[in-house]
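check these tokens.
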Amino acid sequence: MERWAMLAACVLLCCSCTMVTAIQRADMFPYGTLNGDSVLREGDDETSKVLSLPRPLYFFNSPFSQLYVATNGIISAQDLPMEKQYVDDGFPTDFPVVAPFLADIDTSGGRGQIYYRVTEIPSVLNRVAQEVHRGFPDANFTPTHAVVATWENVPAYEEQTRPPSPPNKVNTFQAVIGYDETDSYVLFLYPEGGLNFFGTLPKESYNVEIELPARVGFSRGEIPNILTSRNEGPYYSVTSNEQSVKNLYQFGNSGIPGLWLFHTGNRYSFDNIVPASIKGPVSTPPTVGYDSHMVIFSPEKPLTIGEAATQPFPPPAAYQPPTLYPQTYPRPAAVIRLHCLVWHDQRTMVTPIVLKTTTFSFSFRFLQQCSQNAFCTDYATGFCCHCQPGFYGNGRQCLPDGAPQRVSGKVSGTVYVGSTPVSLNNIDLHAYIVVGDGRAYTAISEVPEPVGWALMPVAPIGELFGWLFALELQNSQAGFKLTGAEFSRHAEVVFYPGNQRLSIIQTARGLDDHNHLTVGTVISGSVPFLPPGAEVTMEPFKETYQYYPSVATSTSIREYSVVTADRGSESFSFQLKQNITYRDCPHNNQAATPETLQILMERVFVMFVKEERILRYAITNKISPVRVRPVGLHNPCYAGTHDCDTTAQCIPLEDLAFQCQCATGYTGDGHNCYDIDECAEGLGTCGDNSECVNLPGSHRCHCQRGYEFGYDGRTCVAMAQCVCCFGMFQLWFLTPFSPSVFFFFSDIDECSSSPCHINARCINGLGSFQCQCQLGFFGNGFYCSQQEDRPERLKTRCEHHRDSVKTTSADGYPITGVYKPQCDAEGQYLPQQCHGSTGYCWCVDSRGEERAGTRTPPGAAPVDCDRPVTPTERPESMCERWRASLIEHYGGKPGPQQYVPQCEPDGEFSPVQCYGETNYCWCVDQNGRMVPGTKSDDAVKPACISSVPPPTVRPTSRPDVTPPINTGITLLYAQGQKIGALPLNGTRLDESRSKTLLALHGSIVVGIAYDCKENQVYWTDLSARSINRASMVSGAEPEVLINTNLVSPEGLAVDVKRRLMFWVDSTPDVIERANLDGSGRRTLFDTDLVNPRAIIVVSSTGTLYWTDWNREAPKIESSSVDGQNRQVIVSDGIGLPNALTYDSATEQICWADAGTKRLECISSDGSGRRVIHANLNYPFSMVYYRNHFYYTDWRRDGVIAVNKHRSLFTDEYLPEQRSHLKTNCIMHTL
């Protein structure tokens, strides 16, 4: 190619475009009653009547024959639960959802209208077909039906205590689903001026003014498993924050602002939602904060460069945003896709050029570049960057293998601690990751004290860095290899039991001049209050990441313990949902992206240092395939017991052997590694007219004055000739393709990014800058030192450790809270190390590793580091001794499928035991013996109940009865160490009058029953192994009825008519009965039982019913009250039948199953089986009253009400102190 055909181009800094206008209300699909629409009744939480479809609609790859339209901006393929169960939550949902604007909307009082219909009108179908063919040119799609749902002028829900919003703060939007016999497509339409609010306040906000952005996208919902469990289905999010919601009407993935198109289902094969892809210059904004890159050529005179094809170059976003230019607008210039460009003349830098047309000019930066440590590979549709051997990353950013990585950034936002708002104003965040071990240390400085304590459980702030640089086991890759240094992470944390919500948004903005990752963090929401001095502990846990093109997601439940002086140890939990979006390269079809990977987080340490106001997280991270047994995990490289330098890689060999190899850019024996100065040793890659600047493990190049980087980011080329014009630069270029074109540039202040050494000053000039070392320092300004000669003696491990600690920031300010090792005159670690800021001291070995049990607080007498440490901990429990013995037997590192006892913090056996990382689990008693019939190999673990009561750390109150006052019908429920009373107002749960009926400290109440004739409550106590009762009068005390020959008494039933009680014992597997005073005890059944749980008695017929959740053969049986006529009622299609009750209206037996998630009923003869509700969470017990089922839910830790006829959740009660609620019953006050 002639050099005149490769003229240099410029980056446009002005934007004067003829843009496509947004859609107007008149452009929406016709709607309203005149067009045959139905109107949704007004209200806050309304759902339409079932919209029956003439033929099935395929959503993802599942057929649905009916739809529901809801007030809150969604369309679902199943009847919706109560809005509190989904409206404040993000994706994924438990049920199928098409969500054009999921938020808390309220049309009460005639404010706004919601219309919906299914139609076959040709004009509607033709328009849907036209839009789909534009967005998916290769689609063979002719819609047969369309569903049109329109929300017109709908407002957000508002508490009556708040002042009303302006009348114009209403939204209008539309969703159109077009489908045929095999495919479905969805259009979202947001007319200009149609969105005036972008989120709503949560229902349970606790007076905290935090607005949740609307959720837009799709969710498949839970997918039933044939056996006993459900799997979380795929989902797709269009929005992630308020700004992305605002973009809905300003942009569009169809090329028309406000118009969005998606392929949403296929009959034969469908993995996830596919957005439209249409050529043209109007595109969606990136969701992760990148600038769009686009190069425009005149279509009349196309330019050919190498193998370039006239295909669109996709902007870098979380998904590839499609583009469209409608035929009704002027035809734009063509877009050319760039390939790898290799120039024979390195002095001439060629960049594609914007020419010919004056209709459009765009604001963009230089096109995507490869790292200087990467190579470019050409593919049929474009190019991709790949890191060179010895480096890792995504090709755009590459880091040296094995070298430690640093992260710096700022934290901002507002966090409510209780009801107190605390502002975080750009406080510092620093992280240090030992990549060779996967150890990530995160420190946040200047944290205000109230929020410092409260943020201790929020380890997910630092978990991001662990995922990025985790220790890779076989067939896995850490996150940085996918994301590089530019990505966005949006995480939501929901705390239990208080339902506080915290949003974490972390945006990576690249590598700085020192190769440090720069990450900005914004935290907003509320967190539970933690008292000063509290300690937080978190056990190791596993997180499964799902990978899709340009996005990684995960969802998990975490448990943590809080230890305080006045309350002792308490357990809490939170749910974490997160999306990490990044730019991938779509041109390399051979690139293997894993579908799922599992990260194991060990040695989780969190601490808030009050004196220094520093919040710290430390986590060791390992990443591996899910459910694949890694080989050789006992090797010191994986166990973290090697002695390689922190700047070295540990390479596992056979058995326990390993090799230490210094990281790329370092030299040494692997046990002691030192940075290679590539600049001084002539190993740099910098070309002519450039300066080489050494970095730890690498180097960078800087162009000399008068030169700038060319397109490849490496070669320095002479700056274009400029003339000053009105304070800007005017550049002239003449091309054979068009007349002269003017480009305007303003000077960039390079000094604002602090490019010079910390001991140098930066001098900005027109088009360039200079770095000059300060007085007393020598160097080129990019590196300055007080001496020019290198030290003769090589540094020891301690000296290398000490000198690598960063004690000052890039601005020259000291970094508080940094621990700097102390070395002796010979460079060895002093036996006793002390933290200069906190005052803590400890002993270390020759490698600087802390000796366990030697740490002492400030002011305490230090430990003699020359004497052995005397343990002061409590004696090991039987569980801990057994665990230690087996670990030793396995050679120090058990495999993922080997059994190691799981112990509680107090040393007792955890009630659920599992084989390693498998799903093979079972229940145990307090001595670690397996409870027969509880073994499972399923994602739903057995419903084991702890047989050891929690410790009582507060003064115990006297255990006497405090009955509810002036109540007619009351629901009684068991919750750990108490029996609670929840009055009913009709069929509604009256939360305002709920109270504790009986406090039983040290007990584990499982089964309860009520004798309405004598007004007494009966219960089983798993801890005391007893059956008890108490009169329902104020001040009445408990009475022990039976306390011998009981092991695990659970379900309990009272026959009021015959004055008998019945119970199940799940360890000896027996069903017994006795008189209500405990006399006349006898065994009814002791054979063919494996794990009996629930039991009820129907007094009117003298019939007994019970469940047996034997994992091999679960069943529901019946007999007479005297043990005759035993028979199986149900044995198929059940999993964990926990709850059992009697529907007196239909005379049917009903049960709730924690395995199948269904509530079902059946007649006593086995006929008339029907499903009342198919989407429960984790039911434990249940009662029936006036066409409603009330069940306790172990996932929600509350009482849920279900309407029998409507199959809907109608109410729920969540106690303030959240823990598993067990049995419940109805009490009739006489």
